[in-house]
Amino acid sequence: MNIMQRGFRSIIRKPIKSILLLLVVVVISSFFMAGLSGQSANIKTQDATRQAVGATFRLEENEANRHKRIDEATKIIGEDKEGTYGGFTQKQLPNGAWMGKADNSFETIKPEDAQKIAGVDGIEAYNLITVSTPVNPVNFKRIEDPDVDQSSDLGGVNVRGNRIMEMDMDVASGKIKLVEGRMIKENETDVCVVSDELAKLNSLKPGDELQFNNAKDKENSQEYSAKIVGIYKTTQKIKPVMSGDTYRSENTIFTDLHFPEKASGEEGNPLFQYAIFKVKDVDAYDRVKADIQKVDIGWERYDLIDNNGNIKSMAENFNDMEKISRMLLLLVSSASFIILVLIFLFWMKNRTQEIGILMALGESKKRIWMQFLVEALLVGCIGFVLSMGASPFLSKATASYLARQTQEQAEEQAEADADSISTDRVAPELTMKGTEIVITGKMVAADAAVIVTLLFVSVSVAGITIMRKKPKEILSEMS
Question: What range(s) does the ABC3 transporter permease C-terminal domain occupy (predicted)?
Answer without folding.
Answer: 327-418
